[in-house]
Amino acid sequence: MNNTLLQIAILFCTLSLSAFGGGKVVLPTMHHDAVQTRPDYSFNNHQWMDDADFVNLFSISMAAPGPSMMVVTLVGLKACLPYGTAVAILGALVATLAMFVPSSFLVYFAGKWWDSWEESPWRHSIMDAIMPISTGLILAATWIIAKTSIHSVPTAIMGVVALLLMLFTKINPVLMMGVAGAISWVFLR
Amino acid sequence: MLELSGLFAFIGLTSFGGGITAYIRRLVVTQKKWLTDEEFLPGLGLVQLLPGANVVGLAVYIGNHLKGPLGSVVALGSLLVPPFISTCALGFLYFHAGKTADTKALLAGITAVACGLMASMVFEAGEKAIKGFFDVVLILITFALVRFLHLSVPIVILIVAPLAIWWHRPRSSKDSGSTNSSAS
Which ipTM score applies to this complex? Predict the structure, then answer.
C-alpha cells in the first residue's frame, strides 16, 4: 500500500512538471505507467488497470466538472482500490496533490521574477517551441484513447461526428457525451 | 477572500476544459474588475509557458495577486476540492456499477465522444503550432518518440525541446531573409 502511494506520488509529481500545454500531453506516460501492457514494455509499469478502465476513467473525467486533468484523481483511486475504500480516497488525494501542487509552486515562484522576463524575445521562442511538441503529445494521447474507444462502426461514427461538432459548432461537449451515451445505451445494449 | 473562494469554486464546477481562459478573463477582469487586462494578460502568458493546466495556474496567479500566498492556496483549493469530491463519487460509482451491460453501452458512446474531443484538440493545438514546415516535423518527431519508441513524456520533451527552441530562437532582422525563416 505504502509502495503504491509512493509510486503514485512520484509518477504524478514528474508529470505535473512535464505538462507543458496542459494535462492532456502527459496522458501517454500516464497510460504507459498505469495500464497493464505486454511484458516487453513493462518498465515502470504498475498494472493498476486495463485499457478499458483507463479510457472509461478518462472519459468520466472529461464529462465530470473540473479541469480535465482530474483523470489523475481516478487513476489514484483505482490504484489503491484493492486496499479498501479509505485507502482509495487517500490514493485519489495523493494523486491530485502530486499533479497540481508542484506546477502551482512553479507558477507562484516564477511569477515573482516574471516581470523582468516578460519582454524577452526568448519568451516567444519558447512558446513557439512548446506548441508543436504539445500538439504531437496530444496526437499520441488521442491515438491511445482511439485504440480502445473506437472499436466498431457506430463508435467510429460518434467519434467523427463529435470531432466535427467540436470544430464547427459551439455545442457543449458534455451535452454531446450525454446524447451519445443515451444513443449507445438504446442501440448497443 | 470568501468571494475569491466562491468564484474559483464556481469556475471549478462549471469548467469542462477548453475555452476556459477566456471565461476566467471575462469573470475576473470584465465582471468583477479585480484585475485589469494589464495585470491579467502577463499572468496568462506565464501559465501558458509553464507546465500544468492553465486554469490551475491562473487560480494561483490571481489568488496571489489579490491576497498573497494565502490567496493562492484558497483559490487553488476552492477550484479543486468540489470537483475532487464529485470525481471520486463518480469513480466509486463506476467501479461498483461499471461492468454491467447497461453502463458498458452508455460508456461506449461517452468514450467515443471523448475521443472526438481529444481529436479536436489536436486540430486546435495544431492550428496554433504550425507556423512553418518544420513545426510539422516537430509534431511528427514528438508523436513517433512516444508512439513507437514508448519514451516517457518528460524524456521526449528533453529531447525535442532544445531542437524546437533552437529553431524558433529569436532572430535578428539580418537573419530573417535566410532560408531558415519559417516564422511569418
Answer: 0.88
